[in-house]
Design goal:
This protein is mainly beta and 323 residues long. It contains one helix and 30 strands.
Length: 323
Amino acid sequence: MTFVGQSASTTCQKDGTWSHPVPKCMAPCSVPSIEHGRVTNYVPEARVPHDKHITVDCIAQYELRYNTTPATCNNGSWTHIPTCIPARCKTLPRRPRHGMVIAPKTDHGMKALFRCKDGYQLIGPNVTECSFGRWAGETPICNETYCPFPGILENGRILLVGHMGMYDYRPYVKKITNNRQIMYECERHYTLSEGPPGATCVDGRWSPQEKPKCVRGSHPQVRWDRKKREAVIRRQRRLDMRRAKRKKRGKRKHKGFCKPVETTPWMDVTVLKKGWMSSSPASRGTVIQVTCGWGYSLNIGNRTAKCVAGRWKPRKPECITST
């Protein structure tokens, strides 16, 4: 038992009151049994005095459920019993090149989705699951897709559109990438009929897939065809310029992400505001709030940090052991 009071004795005074309040004897607590863990500062058969706390370590692949206060003995009962839960994944799954990862949560049992950019095909599983602190399986691959040779246009030819003009499309030309275009042209005295004037490479297929026919005619639409070609070439140039800009931005994209703040048993991280990529917990503009567990102090003043140009402002939050 633990004595709690101002004095071990008290005196009846002239005014009929006691000189000191009646003390209390507070009961000790038994060391609790922790599933998937153990108490480190008391042996199992010990009795923990009133107002004393316990520390708990979990076995491999488990971690303590977050709590801001320690488990404390209160007159024979524990304020709460620490719990060891399956470990969370501390980071996002590795992103495939030319792809992305969508992972709203990283708790044990949660799933993440892999996706590829337009013009790329996913090779491998599109889903992974967090299992005891690790993401299961291998990261898939995003392979670039190419459109096959579309065949031969009877009484005509197929032209491949480039940023400098149009060229005869031959079977030996390989690796036609996403958004490349072809145009159909008929021989002299023939005109296009019953079909589209061209097609676009979309995810490894020509769209539309059907080809037109070249039928004999006495008034080929030469002027209209020339304007149509010029418009297609201009469009292809714009696509090439946008592709070059995206590639240039891709070299700087690391500045749009901060290093993720690792979730630990002694630190709770809450996203107050999502950044430009809502599926990422550390993209540009993300605002987080951090709370440290008992025995730790935060290295920033107002408990919030914002991801700005690849860095946490005012600094990356950390929970440091209190001295």
